[in-house]
Each structure stands twice: as C-alpha cells, then as structure tokens.
Design a protein that fits this description.
- The longest helix is centred in the middle third of the chain and has 21 residues.
- This protein starts with 8 loop residues before the first strand and ends in a 13-residue tail after the last helix.
- The radius of gyration is 21 Å and the shape is globular.
- About 45% of the residues are buried.
- α1 crosses α6 and α2 crosses α3.
- Helices cover about 35% and strands about 15% of the residues.
- It has eleven helices and 17 strands.
- The chain has about 375 residues and is an alpha/beta fold.
- The protein has a single domain, classed as NAD(P)-binding Rossmann-like Domain (Rossmann fold, 3-Layer(aba) Sandwich), CATH 3.40.50.
Length: about 375
C-alpha cells in the first residue's frame, strides 16, 4: 500500500488541501489550480540541496514559484523563503521516508562526489545504498517524478583501448561494473542501475548525467573547481593532458528541471556543454585571468605511478592524495561526449564556456581563494 495521501489530497508540505481531482486544471510551472482558483503549489524534494549543483537547482525551482524541501547534512544559509530544511543523511531510511512524504517530485543529487575517501566503503554506503533508500521511499510515497543525478564518469570504460580516440560518447553506451576505475565510479554505476531497475518497476525515474561542473558557488570545492583553483594559484606545476567536457552548474540545474518536465521515463540525458583538452582549458584560464599556466606535460605512465604512490601514502595518513588513482585512470582516454539528446528532446541550452569560466574566477576571487592577483578582465 502507498503511504502517500489519497488521490484527492494535494500536499503542499506545510498542510494538505482536499479537493475534487475532477476540478483541477494544470497551472503555470506545473502547479495545480482548484475550481475555486486556489493555487496548490507543487513540493519538490532536493537531496544535496546545499551543494554546488543542488543550490542552483533550489534557486531554479524557486524562480518557477515552486516549493522546495532540502534534505542535506548541511544547512542552507540564509534559508530562502518557501524552502523547508531537513538536516539528515540519505543513509537514514527513517529520515528519508519523512523527507519524501508529501512531495510531488524528488531530485536526488546527494552523493560523495570525491574520487577518494579514507574509507572506500563509504562510497557504496552513500552513493549506492543511499540512492536505493531514496528510490524505495519515493516508490512508497507515490511521487510523480524522480530525477536521479548520475555522472558522466560511468559512461567510459577505463579499459577502453587508447585508439578509441575522440569518438564521442552518448547515452546508448552499455558498460559493466568491471569497466569502472574505482570505488566512486562503481558506486555511481550501481546507483544508476538501481534507478533503471526502479523505472522498470513503475517509478517515473529520469536520469541525468552531468559532465564536469564549473561556475560560481562551489563552496565545498568539488574536484573540477579544486583543479581550476590549483592552476589559478600556481600550485600545479605540470599537468596530464586529457580530454573532457565542462558544463556550468547553473545550466545543469536548468537541465534537471527540464528532465523532470519533459524527460522520458527510464532514459538518461547527458548534461554537458564543451569538449576540450586540459591544455585548451589552461590556455583559456591564462587568457581570462592574466595568470601564467603550467606548460609541462606529464606522461600517463608517470602520472599513474605517482597516483599509486600518492594513494599508498594517503592510506596511511588518511589525507587526500595529490592525484587520485580514479582520476588518472579516467584521464587515460577521451571523455568527450555527444550532448545533443538533451538539447533536442528537452530544449536545453547552455551559456558560453568563457562566461562560465569568468564567473568561476570572479567567484573564487570574491571569496578570497586566489593567492595570485588576477588580470584586467575581472575589473
């Protein structure tokens, strides 16, 4: 039996409004309007809503006039109007059930986004098992749509031959668990598999796979922001050239909303913008910031050995490695993507890479994170 309110109960998150479903018409932004003209505002649960992409998603939903409930380990400060805050973990089944109760849509973003952790088992506990708890609670609550935020990292086999070159990866790729290069990717692979299984079982799940997010507001410095900051601060004297895809976190949030509105159940949508090499990114950062970027390239074999040694030291010190092994393995072959499906099916659009990088640098400068003075383009 579903624990969700009966069909005639429309939940707002603060109270329930009873009305005859026959007299409800669709209103703006997907909210409902009763026969008396009362607007019944849809309630969205955003797990990880205090995080980088999650905070932008909360803003996007509020801009549509919708209500938001955030489930996260950290508070949002200041707490916006029309946002309920539920402090807790997605590993706590009882807390998850309470957070999902009464919600019309669930946007599940909460995860450990790092490529290394002192206890590798924590990736499975949070990213995989936590997602299963979210799916189970959403199924019981009878939510209208569940948008699962996966990652592009699980769409490329680290065992792929080097000769695979610049072949663009799209949503049709089929891989197995042994293709995943480390515990982070394995946990996200299993979580996406659970989301697909839930969709087959009747839960209206849509999957989005953001590429490497950049932009302002990354307070916890996820790996892409940490990489950019290291180059801007002159802390990285050399680099392993590789190819990847960058996307603005604000555009990812817009894509998540579109996936909820227009996405096909059981489908995945890659949310990515620009394919480029690390060398090309460094050239863009130097041009925009006026700061010198490293010129020395590190061979893959040397980077791999360094990562192995670095993680060996981290296993003893419990401090993050300089170069996570998972990241080096992912960099061995191209991580370029065909992102046309989201554009054609969802009507999704992205801002320019230059605008995203400038906003990133400005935000880092404004937060006092830059140790070198930036050039005139930021004035």
């Amino acid at each position: 039996m579903s624990s969700r309110a009966p069909p005639l109960a429309i939940r707002t998150g603060w109270f329930d409004l009873e009305c005859d479903i026959r007299h409800i018409l669709a209103g703006p932004s997907g909210n409902a309007i009763s026969s008396s003209g009362t607007i019944l505002v849809r309630l969205n649960l955003v797990t990880g809503g205090s995080g980088f992409i999650g905070r932008h998603l909360v803003d996007a939903l509020l801009a549509r006039g919708e209500r938001v409930r955030v489930l996260d380990l950290r508070p949002i400060a200041p707490l916006p109007e029309n946002v309920e805050l539920s402090i807790g973990s997605i590993t706590d089944a009882a807390h998850v059930a309470r957070a999902v109760a009464g919600c019309d849509r669930v946007f599940h973003l909460a995860a450990n986004p790092n490529l290394w952790a002192p206890d590798p088992r924590s990736f499975d506990a949070v990213n995989h098992q936590g997602t299963r708890r979210m799916l189970e609670a959403a199924q019981k609550a009878g939510v209208q749509r569940f948008v699962y935020t996966s990652t592009e990292s699980i769409l490329k086999s680290y065992r792929a031959p080097k000769t695979s070159g610049r072949a663009l990866i799209d949503e049709s790729v089929v891989l197995v668990l042994d293709d995943m290069p480390g515990p982070y990717c394995r946990s996200k692979y299993l979580a996406e598999a659970a989301a697909r299984e839930a969709a087959s079982g009747g839960l209206p799940v849509v999957i989005v796979n953001p590429t490497m997010p950049i932009g302002p507001g990354d307070a916890l410095l996820t790996p892409p922001s940490k990489m950019i900051l290291g180059f801007l601060n002159g802390e990285t004297p050399a680099y392993l050239d590789c190819e990847f895809n960058l996307v603005d976190a604000r555009d990812v949030a817009a894509g998540q909303v579109l996936a909820a509105d227009k996405g096909r159940v059981g489908e995945r949508y890659i949310l990515g913008n620009v394919n480029l090499s690390l060398g090309e990114l460094l050239a863009a950062l130097q041009r925009l910031s006026g700061l010198a970027m490293p010129k020395t390239r590190v061979p893959y074999a040397l980077a791999l050995v360094s990562a192995l040694v670095s993680e060996g030291i981290s296993a003893v010190t419990k401090r993050p490695p300089v170069a996570p092994l998972t990241g080096v393995r992912l960099a061995r072959t191209s991580m370029a993507f065909d992102c046309s499906k989201a554009r054609s099916e969802l009507g999704w659009e992205c801002r320019s890479l230059e605008a995203s990088l400038l906003d990133t640098i400005r935000w880092m400068s404004g937060r006092g994170l830059l140790r070198r003075p930036v050039g005139l383009p930021l004035a």
